[in-house]
């Protein structure tokens, strides 16, 4: 029975690393969106997309932490 649960640990590691990578990606998107918005702020009157990106980053970070806690 112990051998049959090795796939669970492998899947848990994969999810932890996957959501960690997603969190890094969304953090990069957040930083670049803030820089682009700051540069275009005087000329552009569009809404700031960084709140939605920050929410995606927070969700991915939370999932990575949750899966890491279950290791």
Report what the structure shows.
The chain has about 70 residues and is mostly helical. It is built from two helices and no strands. α1 (about 5-40) runs antiparallel to α2. It is rod-shaped and about 60 Å long. The protein starts with 5 loop residues before the first helix and ends with a helix.
SSE layout:
Layout: H1 6-40, H2 50-69
Helix pairs in contact: 1-2
Percent of residues in helices: over 70%
Question: Helix count?
Answer: 2
* Distance N to C terminus: 18 Å
Query: What class do helices, strands and sheet pairing give?
Result: mainly alpha
Principal-axes shape call: rod-shaped
Helix and strand run: HH
What is the radius of gyration computed over CA atoms, rounded to a whole number of angstroms?
Answer: 17 Å
Low-confidence stretches: none
Q: Mean of residue pLDDT?
A: 86
Tell me the total number of β-strands: 0
User: Sheet bearing the most strands, described?
Assistant: none
The amount of beta strand, in percent, is under 5%
Keywords, separated by commas or semicolons:
single chain, 71 residues, rod-shaped, mainly alpha
Quick structural summary:
Helix 1 packs antiparallel against helix 2. This protein is mostly helical.
